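Consider this today:
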Amino acid sequence: MATTKWAIDPTHSEIGFKVKHMMFTNVSGKFEKYDATIATEGDNFENASIDFSANIDSINTNNADRDNHLKSADFFDAENHPKLIFKATSFTKKNDENYDLTGDLSLRGVTKSVKFPAEFSGLMKDPWGNTKAGLNIYGKINRKDWGLNWNSALETGGVLVSEEVRLNIELQLVKQ
């Protein structure tokens, strides 16, 4: 069977995350610039090959001071580690729309294996005849596992920034 290549449609995709701030509200952010190489056997996404990277400098939490702090050595250290990189090692079908995405996530020069649930929304043709596929990847990581350790204690107890980062990645893929 022929290999099918897919590209991310950036106008219909979002690489998002949320982190608890002061133990009780979420701060949301996203990466604005990213790239992926995705290949499947025909239109079957099981065992898809997925290589993804995001530019750390493109982080956007709607606050320039916070974004600059996230890019600094306290967090991502964008100067020395300009990209977040994910390379899938398996994409396993559980049922018609649910998959497990396993792979190596690299941040700040640290690479760790991660596993995230993924929902495959199926294939659809858009009005211009392009075949599209929908994929939602979600889950959580502990930022300290990658050396993103900065924090500040609160007078009331607890910490300013949660260690847990929730991921919400919405991808619309275009068949090439």
Observations:
- The chain has one helix and eleven strands.
- The first strand starts at residue 3 and ends at 8.
- Residues 142 and 163 are 5 Å apart (CA to CA).
- Residues 64-71 form the longest helix (8 residues).
